[in-house]
């Protein structure tokens, strides 16, 4: 089915379906979100504006409001530097504080529960752009490890869940392949990404946020990730929010809602298919036989430092967004009404294994590394042996090693022992197994 013939998405019907499929269906909404960062000015900045000091405030996200509903996959698109990742991080309460930053606005789950680290951990999950998977684990082991650390259910229940996730991800045939890393390519980029998504699925989050899950993948693999996200929304009632870069038209077909960003503003928000009609209405029609996503990327591209044409383009898009869409989005947001997560029993959720299980799992993981990377093990063994011989040479029979008339034998050995202990501690820190 082409995009033109696809029926419009009915958010209310999808929400009702999500209520059946998902234990705790969640709407994520944000209102008047502004994010500023203080950054150092460059020489060129100061040359252009002599009144500028050593730092300036960069408005990264400029007072945006919106929502993402259950049962739908919402995609955030825009040129690089538009503030997509920043918005996603804000929604996940994980804005980086590397520099001085200022954040304001309301971000809520189901119009009621404020999003913070604690509530986010309960209802949501974040899949990062760079996956952090353990290279020597197999897909199944990675998911099992995550299940053991996140779930309190019995081992059997956890294993059944892991099996189910592998099935959902379509990874049955490679469940026992090692994940690999940049040096040892085993899984393909798309498969690694699926595995990262699977690790997050273990805790059965109602909301899944993803930062550019398709970057670095070819268009076929990117499409399969979009299909997976579409299935998670439709079949499991999850709320998917993902940033995406340059999707193909086949991937675009799987978008339910689309948010377009330019220079920190939201310039379109609504049904992905209807975006085509909207841009036609504001006299920026998508040319025939063109991938709408390509056209949007071109339309939203902005050169920094901004030229007059860029400023005019942003003003134009903003003006129409405020005139035609802002109220509509607010009304749609009000229509999606869901019970408070507390009433749905979400208070009991706690994704943390007890300390003894954590310790056991970490030791098991280290042992797996030793078994699967024998070269690393041998190198460390050799290193430890050499350091031990060096230490022996230095501290052998420390009692008689250093003679000083002013010190008693007791003092001499105490000093030497302190030296030996210090050295051993440092070696342990840097050469641990
Ligand atoms: N904490 C921060 N400190 C300084 N600058 C930031 C910070 N977060 C984002 N920015 C800047 O804001 C702009 C938008 O960033 P980002 O949200 O990553 O864009 P996108 O994901 O759309 O490419 C970039 O120019 C980035 O350098
Ligand atoms: Mg980004």
Keywords:
433 residues, alpha/beta, Rossmann fold, 2 domains, six-stranded mixed sheet, four-stranded antiparallel sheet, binds adenosine-5'-diphosphate, binds magnesium ion
Give a description of the structure.
The protein is of the alpha/beta class and 433 residues long. The protein contains 15 helices and ten strands. It has helices spanning 11-21, 43-48, 84-91, 117-123, 139-150, 155-169, 189-201, 219-236, 249-252, 274-281, 292-300, 308-335, 355-372, 374-395, 409-430, and strands spanning 28-40, 55-68, 73-78, 101-109, 113-114, 124-127, 207-210, 239-243, 257-262, 265-271. Bound molecules: adenosine-5'-diphosphate and magnesium ion (MG). Adenosine-5'-diphosphate binds next to strand 1, strand 2 and helix 3.
Into how many domains do the coordinates divide?
Answer: 2
Approximately how much beta-strand content do the residues carry?
15-25%
Q: Which stretches are low in confidence, meaning pLDDT under 50 for 5 or more residues running? A: none
Give a short account of the largest sheet.
6 strands, mixed
Radius of gyration: 27 Å
Using the 3D structure, state the CATH architecture of the largest domain.
3-Layer(aba) Sandwich
The count of helical stretches stands at 15
Q: Report the CATH topology name of the largest domain.
A: Rossmann fold
Structural class by sheet pairing and helices: alpha/beta
Distance N to C terminus: 56 Å
Mean pLDDT value: 85
Strand arrangement in the largest pleated sheet = 6-7-8-3-9-10
User: In one word, what is the shape?
Assistant: globular
Helical amount: 40-55%
> Considering the protein shown, what is the CATH homologous superfamily of the largest domain?
P-loop containing nucleotide triphosphate hydrolases
- Overall number of strands: 10
């Amino acid at each position: 089915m082409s995009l033109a013939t696809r029926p419009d998405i009915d958010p209310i019907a999808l929400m009702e379906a999500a209520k059946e499929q998902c234990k705790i269906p969640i709407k994520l909404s944000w209102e008047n979100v502004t994010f500023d960062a203080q950054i150092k000015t460059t020489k060129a900045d100061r040359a252009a504006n002599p009144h500028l000091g050593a730092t300036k405030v960069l408005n990264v996200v400029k007072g945006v409001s919106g929502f993402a509903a259950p049962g739908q996959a919402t995609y955030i698109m825009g040129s690089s530097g538009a503030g997509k990742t920043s918005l996603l991080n804000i929604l996940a309460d994980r804005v980086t504080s590397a520099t001085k930053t200022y954040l304001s606005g309301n971000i809520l789950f189901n119009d009621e529960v404020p999003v913070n680290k604690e509530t986010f951990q309960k209802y949501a999950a974040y899949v990062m752009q760079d996956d952090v998977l353990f290279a020597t684990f197999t897909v199944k082991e990675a998911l099992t490890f995550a299940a053991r650390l996140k779930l309190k259910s019995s081992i059997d229940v956890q294993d059944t869940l892991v099996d189910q996730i592998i099935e959902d991800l379509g990874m049955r045939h490679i469940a026992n392949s090692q994940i690999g890393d940049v040096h040892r390519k085993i899984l393909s980029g798309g498969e690694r990404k699926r595995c990262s998504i699977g690790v997050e699925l273990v805790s059965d989050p109602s909301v899944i946020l993803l930062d550019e899950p398709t970057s670095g993948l070819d268009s076929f693999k990117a499409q399969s990730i979009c299909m997976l996200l579409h299935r998670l929304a439709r079949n499991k009632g999850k709320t998917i929010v993902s940033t995406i870069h340059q999707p193909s038209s086949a991937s675009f077909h799987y978008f339910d809602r689309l948010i377009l960003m330019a220079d920190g503003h939201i310039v379109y928000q609504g049904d992905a298919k209807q975006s085509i009609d909207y841009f036609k209405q504001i006299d920026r029609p998508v040319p025939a036989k063109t991938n709408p996503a390509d056209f949007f990327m071109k339309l939203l591209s902005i050169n920094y430092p901004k030229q007059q044409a860029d400023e005019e383009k942003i003003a134009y898009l903003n003006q129409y967004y405020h005139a035609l869409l802002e109220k509509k989005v607010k009304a749609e947001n009000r229509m999606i009404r869901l019970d408070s997560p507390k009433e749905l029993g979400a208070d009991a959720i706690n994704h943390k294994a007890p300390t003894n299980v954590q310790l056991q799992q970490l030791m098991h993981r280290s042992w797996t590394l030793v078994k699967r990377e024998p070269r690393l093990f041998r190198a460390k063994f050799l290193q430890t042996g050499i350091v031990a011989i060096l230490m022996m040479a230095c501290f052998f029979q420390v009692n008689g090693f250093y003679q000083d008339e002013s010190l008693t034998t007791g003092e001499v050995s105490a000093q030497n022992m302190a030296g030996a202990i210090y050295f051993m501690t440092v070696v342990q820190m840097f050469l641990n197994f």
